[in-house]
């Protein structure tokens, strides 16, 4: 695929983030934990993966857990253990292998030796151990393993705000009680619900108050996008020498990373279908309409989720068409609650006093067309 879609992108397709990645890598190398918050599909995981790759190249251990894909405390614990031990064993589910020792010894002698060595030095929990004890083991393991192997460890926790919904709000207190004493581990916390993440790390009553440095994710510069889009099309023998046309792609997507990639992808396939070899304004307009159609299920899901709350859809409509959000006939408190819900859900963000904008500009256009 010329323009990657649907997940983290490879190193060569990370656009305009180099300075930020270097800064993030430096902080984690020095043992500082960091929190990054922002809506889904803006490149947080791609940044984290690239930082982890560079740190591993330097000799660090790296692990990651996606709380969006976990469903229980036990699941969280197993994910932490397996991701940490993969650095040592090279297999993704070491814990299961240990619990099924006969199969492991029969099928992978080298791995079995690595596991036996680990077991002698750090022990392993029994399969029958209760969830609380397994979680305690998992939260201790990163520092224990790093110290044993004379390594530094970096752990990425993706969609960290979901941990409380899975394991109960007290799980944050349990985590903090372990993490604050670890000398060999730095944590990178990612979250798509910016309001919740800010509350977790900046609220004095929350367990992770001031535990990590909160860094804003910078906007990708327009010139970086233009250079990237032009280069990618040129690699396929497609003329995109004029800055105007790639710039139009960026403008239509509002610089949103995944939407910029999506419009570029649709432009590429439109060119393939028509047999043309020049990226033009006409091709970009066709690509944009195709991208809107492609995003319809995504936008419908977003609106379906946030639209359950009173006044939310009306606030979105007013914002999209440029109407005054607060109107005399409405209770201001109702409108304020709807706005807070939309900010918490990362659908809109505040620009200034009484001013808000869509995080994803193409959603603005979709609402104008359909509501």
How would you summarize what this structure contains?
The chain has 371 residues and is an alpha/beta fold. It folds into three domains: 17-214, 3-Layer(aba) Sandwich (Rossmann fold), CATH 3.40.50.300; 221-306, Helicase, Ruva Protein, domain 3 (Orthogonal Bundle); 307-371, Orthogonal Bundle (Arc Repressor Mutant, subunit A).
List the helices and strands and how they pair.
Blueprint: H1 18-29, E1 34-37, H2 44-57, E2 61-66, H3 73-89, H4 94-99, H5 101-107, H6 109-122, H7 131-148, E3 153-158, H8 163-167, H9 171-179, E4 185-191, H10 194-202, E5 213-214, H11 222-235, H12 244-253, H13 257-274, H14 281-306, H15 312-321, H16 332-344, E6 348-352, E7 355-358, H17 361-370
Parallel strand pairs: 1-4, 1-5, 2-3, 3-4
Antiparallel strand pairs: 6-7
Helix pairs in contact: 1-2, 3-7, 12-13, 13-14, 15-17
Task: Report the end-to-end length measured between terminal Cα atoms.
Answer: 34 Å
**Main beta sheet strand tally, sense and closure:** 5 strands, parallel
Measured on Cα atoms, how large is the radius of gyration? 24 Å
CATH class of the largest domain: Alpha Beta
Shape: globular
Structural class: alpha/beta
- Helix percentage: 55-70%
Number of domains: 3
- The total count of strands amounts to 7
Q: What is the CATH topology descriptor of the largest domain?
A: Rossmann fold
For the largest sheet, list the strands in their spatial order: 2-3-4-1-5
Order of helices and strands: HEHEHHHHHEHHEHEHHHHHHEEH
Model regions low in confidence, pLDDT < 50 over at least 5 residues: none
Task: Please report the number of helical segments.
Answer: 17
Name of the CATH superfamily of the largest domain:
P-loop containing nucleotide triphosphate hydrolases
Please give the CATH architecture of the largest domain. Answer: 3-Layer(aba) Sandwich
Mean pLDDT: 90
Please report which band the strand proportion falls in: under 5%, 5-15%, 15-25%, 25-35%, 35-45% or over 45%. Answer: 5-15%
